[in-house]
Specification:
Strand content: 15-25%
Mean pLDDT: 89
Largest sheet: 5 strands, mixed
Number of domains: 2
CATH class of the largest domain: Alpha Beta
Structural class: alpha/beta
Strand order of the largest sheet: 3-2-1-4-5
Number of helices: 8
Low-confidence stretches: 260-264
Length: 264
């Protein structure tokens, strides 16, 4: 039995195809302005990888911002539920997920079955998200992908005091005009973003077994500062952390084949 999960976010589109209890194909692409087209493109990549016919997919679940605009999905579920289930599927010891996406950040608490117990989400401000890091990286003159490696070269601690990404950008520009090293500015950015995320953790219980998902999970500078500020060491989710949402959607698609399954 083949099932699929599609996660259409603001910056990337992800897809996973599962056979029974294993991932046989996955893809991550940059999302375009049309969620439906992004869904089609990322799913096509998944199918082509293993020469799978679209008709072979028995059930497909969509999630993310574009979940309502995925024409071939059978049903959709929230990214909160899907990220929780995807991380748990990869590592059953996980009980807390910090998901940092393109436009929001979520702290998700799950139970011993991977179902959501509680969550908090910051979707009112861009600070602490992939989008803010992308914009601020350009201000330094580097790409978002280069930020983590550049920050790792820092040997001096700088402080960004503003919590708003717009004012953070002005602060970064001021530091550049003062001749501060790009590596030190990049490190300060990573630390500031981590601080914005940590501020959310006071609203939900952080249980042992913490992992980080989403695109920002691949920025080692942000991850390092998060671990330091939370005084914990993140567990590996057992899958590509950027695929947690799509994986959870595929798991829910599999579960939906059970007549007793209840969607949440």
């Amino acid at each position: 039995m083949l099932t699929a999960g599609i996660d259409i976010g603001s910056l990337t589109a992800k897809a996973v195809i599962m056979e029974e209890k294993r991932i046989i194909s996955s893809s991550i692409i940059k999302a375009g302005p049309n969620p439906s087209k992004s869904a089609e493109e990322v799913m096509t990549e998944c199918l082509v990888q293993k020469n799978i016919s679209p008709s072979s997919i028995e059930k497909c679940c969509s999630t993310g911002y574009g979940r309502f605009n995925t024409p071939f999905s059978d049903f959709n579920m929230s990214e909160i539920s899907c990220h929780g289930m995807g991380a748990f599927w990869g590592n059953s010891n996980i009980r807390t997920i910090i998901d940092i996406g393109g436009q929001d950040c979520k702290i998700i608490s799950i139970d011993e079955n991977g179902m959501v117990k509680d969550f908090v989400m910051n979707d009112k401000c861009a600070a602490g998200t992939g989008r803010s890091l992308e914009i601020l990286s350009r201000t330094i003159g580097i790409t978002y992908e280069e930020l983590g490696d550049l920050a790792a070269k820092s040997r001096k601690s700088l402080l960004l005091t503003n919590k708003c990404s717009i004012f953070m950008e002005l602060e970064v520009m001021e530091l550049m005009q003062r001749g501060k090293k790009p590596s030190d500015i990049a490190n300060a950015l990573a630390k500031a973003v981590a601080g914005r995320i940590v501020a959310l953790t006071g609203s939900v219980e952080i249980s042992e077994g913490v992992c980080i998902t989403g695109g920002v999970s691949k920025n080692r500078a942000v991850v390092r500062h998060l671990e330091n500020q939370l005084k914990t060491e993140f567990q590996l989710p057992g899958i590509d952390p950027q695929l947690a949402g799509a994986t959870g959607a595929a798991v829910f698609a599999s579960q939906s084949m059970n007549a007793n399954y209840e969607r949440r």
